[in-house]
Amino acid sequence: MYKYILKRLLMMIPVLLGVTFIVFFILNLSPGDPAAMILGDQASEEALEMKREELGLNDPLLVRYGRYVVNMVQGDLGTSYKNDLSVWDQVMERFPNTAVLAVAGILVALIIGIPTGIISAKKQYSAVDNVSMVLSLIGVSMPNFWFGLLVVIVFALNLGWLPSQGMGEGGVELLKSLVLPALTLGTGCAATITRMTRSSMLEVIHQDYIDTAKAKGVSERTITVTENL
After folding, report:
1. In angstroms, rounded to a whole number, what is the distance separating the alpha carbons of residues 161 and 113?
2. Of the given ranges (27-36, 144-153, 202-211, 213-222), which has the lowest mean pLDDT?
3. Which of 12, 28, 65, 83 sits a CA distance of 20 to 30 A from 178?
4. Taking the mean position of all CA atoms in its chain, how far away is CA 124?
5. Sign of the CA dihedral running 175, 177, 178, 182
6. What is the 3-state composition of the chain as percent helix, strand, coil, each rounded to the nearest 5?
7. CA 189 to chain centre
8. Could you give the CA distance from residue 139 to residue 184 in angstroms, rounded to a whole number?
9. What are the φ/ψ torsions at residue 172 (nearest 5 degrees)?
């Protein structure tokens, strides 16, 4: 087991190097001059050239990529061209809110997806099952940004129940500001979890040991909980 985990971790190294190089190469091909972004369009060509030399933009692509990888391993993500602040500091400043939103989205996905999948499996081919499968298909197919716009229009702009942006401070305000983003992030995952839960339930719901447990008087709730553990 440990060898397998170590092997998988070692295999991540070339994958990460390949992905970062592809992204680095594509960004290198994209239009725009970082020196002009920093100094402005009115800067002289001499000033722009000096800034390019200072940033190392005149070096070959592989040299710049190697410098980027070495600095990244050391925790140095560079300085933002836009505001001249450390990228690492900006990432860490926003990380707590990102973590809170990610956890909220996962909770929404689990709270919606698991019970819906269980009910659909228990009531296979019923109206409840058909409706839940149609909704899960819509949830998987609908882009998150589109669903986010819809809920903002309905619950924030039209009804005025929830804020459309920002992270509130304090218990109630924080929860209110999390509802729409968490719902937007969690809905797509909830649809996937619903379909997976339903399929897993249907695989075991008619097994012999389930019938044996029922014959011995084990409650339906206990069997359902055990199936999903």
Report:
1. 25
2. 213-222
3. 83
4. 31
5. positive
6. 75, 0, 25
7. 10
8. 10
9. -65, -45
Cα–Cα distance measured from residue 207 to residue 126, given in angstroms and rounded to the nearest whole number: 21
The conformation of residue 86, written as its DSSP 8-state character, comes to B
Which pLDDT tens digit goes with each residue over 118-174?
888 888 788 887 888 888 888 888 888 888 888 888 888 888 887 877 776 777 777
Instruction: Record the pTM.
Output: 0.68
Q: 84-118: b or e for each residue (b if 16 or more CB lie within 10 Å)?
A: eeeeeeeeeeeeeeeeebeebbbebbeebbbebbb
Q: Quick count: other Cβ atoms within 10 Å of Cβ 190? A: 26
Classified as helix, coil or strand, 131 is helix
Dihedral sign for Cα 137, 143, 147, 153, please: negative
- Which amino acid is located at 53 in the chain? E
3-state DSSP assignment of residue 41: coil
The residue type found at 207 is: Q
SS3 10: helix
Contact 187, 107 (CB under 8 A): no
At residue 63, what is the residue type? Answer: V
Residue 76 φ/ψ, nearest 5 degrees:
-100, 105
Q: How far is CA 175 from the centre of its chain?
A: 19
Distance CA 160, CA 180 (A): 12
User: Residue 79 in 3-state DSSP?
Assistant: strand
Which among 80, 76, 35 is positioned nearest to 54, based on CA atoms?
Answer: 35
